[in-house]
Design brief:
By secondary structure, this protein is α/β, with parallel strands linked by helices. The chain contains two helices and nine strands.
Length: 107
């Protein structure tokens, strides 16, 4: 079981954390939302939760709760620029379907 960042995504997270001036890592989770059932959630973590599973990727700690890991296992988080848009992109092998707007997914 693992969740990873690309080197480009790790660099972006490190820059955000440096700008914030604090944080222990990036918390990834899924929540019930959207037309396809689930949506990704990303937030900076300022402290570890005793229930967190921790993955290290290119010097960045990724924190995931046990429930979300079932949906995120094997996911690679990338940072991409496409035209004028840029942002984090989830390459999740568990996704079976996603909505047209790309905001939610199902497994």
């Amino acid at each position: 079981m693992a969740i990873t960042l690309t080197e480009r995504a790790a660099t972006r997270v490190q820059n955000f954390m440096k700008y914030r001036g604090k944080g222990v890592g990036l918390r990834l989770s899924v929540k019930t939302s959207g037309c396809s059932g689930m949506a990704y959630s990303l937030e900076f973590a300022d402290e570890l939760d005793g229930e967190d599973l921790t993955f290290d990727s290119f010097g960045v700690k990724l924190l995931v709760d046990h429930k979300s890991l079932a949906y995120l296992d094997g996911t690679e988080l990338d940072y991409a620029r496409e035209g004028l848009n840029e942002g984090f992109k989830f390459n999740n092998p568990n996704v079976k379907d996603s909505c047209g707007c790309g905001e939610s997914f199902s497994v």
